[in-house]
Amino acid sequence: MRATPLLTALLLAYAGACHAALGGAPEDFGTANTTVAAYATVAGANYRLRETVLDTGTRVNEYVSAAGVVFALTWEGPILPDLKALLGKYFDAMVAESASAPRAGRARLGVNSPEVVINSGGRMRAFEGSAWLPAQLPAGFTPNDLR
Known about the structure:
Layout: H1 3-13, E1 35-41, E2 47-53, E3 59-65, E4 70-77, H2 83-87, H3 91-100, E5 108-112, E6 117-123, E7 126-132
């Protein structure tokens, strides 16, 4: 089974409705059926967590610094969110990694660079992933804090 063409097609198919990105302001998502489930300051932390449930049932968590910049995000659900919009300029790194990775039996995709870390995987109706900017993580925050 050749997962790369399918994954690339899925990534590109869901590119369109969002207006912000990793390293920018929190996402607008632009759909009437989107629910912001939570937007709260995490106790004792210098960031806010914004949890949004899309009309597709997919949950997106955005980790927003005190300066209003999304430094990390996670997603989980039956449909991939608009990764091109969520990852912004880092989406191209993910596509490049997809094109250069071995094709046989690959279900997960990862980018691990000093600038950005992206992990994405899953199957139809069960996608998940995370992305973060290592240089922008607030003091005391680690990737293990992502949920």
